[in-house]
Amino acid sequence: MLSLASERSRADDLIGEIRSAEEREAFTRANHQNKLAAKEETGVAMRIRVGQGMNRGSDFDVFAHITNNTAEDHAGCLLLCARTVSYNGILGPKCGTKDLLNFSLEPFSEKSIPLRILYEKYCDYLTESNLIKVRGLFVESAANSYLLAERDIYLENPEIKIRILGEPKQNRKLVAEVSLRNPLTVPLSGCTFTVEGAGLTEEQKTVEMHLPSEPSSWGKEPQRPLTYP
């Protein structure tokens, strides 16, 4: 379980990412008042939920799901921020933000707030880890309290399909078809497939796709014979 000091530190980081200097100063003063309560004691909880289709190359939504299990209204500011992140925790530029200055929760209610993350915002900064860190912060200024949630999201690489055409027979050539579905909203061109198979190819084979792959369509490597031992 994360310590309160750790959560306070990360809350300060998030405030620094997407709020003004005046708001950061006000939040720092609230921290010094030492009136931050644990999540279990407030009756208000938040977590980051994910949608479907979170593939590298696509746009997708994440959600801050907040529940109020008390008989009181809770009002304040809700901040959402998404940034690329590496395996060792180094954060990249922001790829999605939302700032709701007048967010409220009625008694015994729940809300799910979407945050749209666009490929054009993260494509140049996503590392080989394929991770995006999403953080949500709900600040109640009147009560000098906050609620923090975060989640690391892994983006799936596009699926590559391999299909063997015909029946493999010993000492005879066979044909394999390799295909990949274009996850982008623009055509792909100038792409190559690199394939190899133990006992089937003497070395790696690189084949260029001569026809552009349209959005959401399958790009295929021209059929190439392989030797089946």
From TrEMBL:
Report the domain of life of the source organism: Eukaryota
Domain Transglutaminase C-terminal, by residue range, is 44-142, 158-216
Which SUPFAM superfamilies would you find in this protein's record? Answer: Transglutaminase, two C-terminal domains
Region (Disordered) residue ranges read 208-229
Q: Which Gene3D superfamilies match?
A: Immunoglobulins
Q: What is this protein called?
A: Protein-glutamine gamma-glutamyltransferase 2 isoform 2
